[in-house]
Write a structure and sequence with these properties.
By secondary structure, the protein is of the alpha/beta class. It has eleven helices and 14 strands.
């Protein structure tokens, strides 16, 4: 697949620091949305931020871009006077980790899956954009890493951050707020759109489906789900996303098993019935088919 199919918004959303500097962040407003008692979602530019506030201090999940750090901190300050104690990255992409260094300077500890630190700590290449991403400075790297998961007993809740099999990338973390009944899925979930599968970072369509299945098995109709991109979702929203991705996956897998090339699989339009609802976002249908094809064995 070529970059010509890519919506400009996504190219920016995963931009390197150099490209991010071309965006006028002065026009971006960081807004907060209450998801449950003590749990908020912050929206600005880039991935959705999860936030836990309470007597222990703030626990933040993802931090968008460096130029937005002051606005993000101001939005948090409007909700609580307590400082940010921890920042957890759901994966390594710059629209989720760009503020790491700035928040660390305020005294926050950076936490992530071990593959996030590995990828941030060395130059990466995203084939989707034919783009090299330089290594992040040491001050932006997670100082606490885990292989399987870590639990925060924080602000009266049990907040479980756990690694899932390669999905959006090979370092994805999903977060469950047990008491608040909220889940933050990072970019394993693009609510209302086909997902970006970063095959250069180990992402796989089978992992996208598996992550959704794992979350669906532990939530109820009352659970609120924060996606990496898009509005706060319900279990039904996640189920619809999972079923759509699984249907496309099965169709593309059949085409690949029949010996069809990627170009032939794209030409077969296996997403056609889903395009009106799911193909209007960052990832257009032809791009998604190509990503699915590349991520299948």
């Amino acid at each position: 697949m070529r970059v010509r199919f890519l919506a400009p918004a996504l190219a920016f959303a995963l931009a390197t620091p150099v490209l991010a500097q071309q965006q006028d962040f002065s026009k971006v407003e960081v807004q907060s949305e209450k998801v449950a008692d003590g749990v908020y979602m912050l929206k600005g530019a880039g991935g959705n931020i999860g936030l836990s506030i309470g007597p222990n201090g703030s626990l933040v999940f993802d931090d968008q871009y460096a130029p937005l750090s002051d606005k993000i901190l101001a939005a948090i300050k409007a909700l609580t006077p307590d400082p940010v104690r921890f920042v957890v990255n759901t994966h390594w992409h710059g629209d989720h980790t760009g503020g790491n260094e700035n928040l660390a300077k305020t005294g926050a500890f950076l936490v992530a899956h071990e593959n996030v630190r590995k990828r941030m700590g060395s130059e990466q290449f995203i084939a989707m954009f034919n783009q090299k991403v330089p290594a992040s400075p040491e001050a932006a790297l997670p100082v606490v890493t885990f292989a399987e998961g870590v639990t925060f007993h924080w602000n009266g809740d049990e907040v479980r951050a756990f690694h899932v099999a390669p999905a959006h990338t090979d370092g994805d973390t999903v977060v469950q707020f047990v008491k608040a009944d909220v889940v933050h899925m990072g970019d394993c979930f693009f609510n209302g759109n086909f997902p970006f599968i970063d095959t250069s970072s180990g992402g796989k369509v089978d992992g996208i489906v598996a992550a959704a299945d794992r979350v669906l098995g532990g939530v109820t109709d009352k659970t609120k789900i924060i996606p990496g991109h898009g509005p706060v979702a319900s279990k039904a929203d996640l189920q619809a996303y999972r079923d759509t991705v699984k249907s496309v996956r099965d169709r593309v897998a059949k085409l690949k098993a029949e010996g069809k090339t990627k170009e032939a699989a794209v030409a077969a339009k296996p997403t056609a019935e889903f395009d009106a609802k799911w193909g209007q976002g960052f990832i257009k249908p032809d791009v998604f088919v190509g990503l699915v094809y590349d991520s299948l064995p």
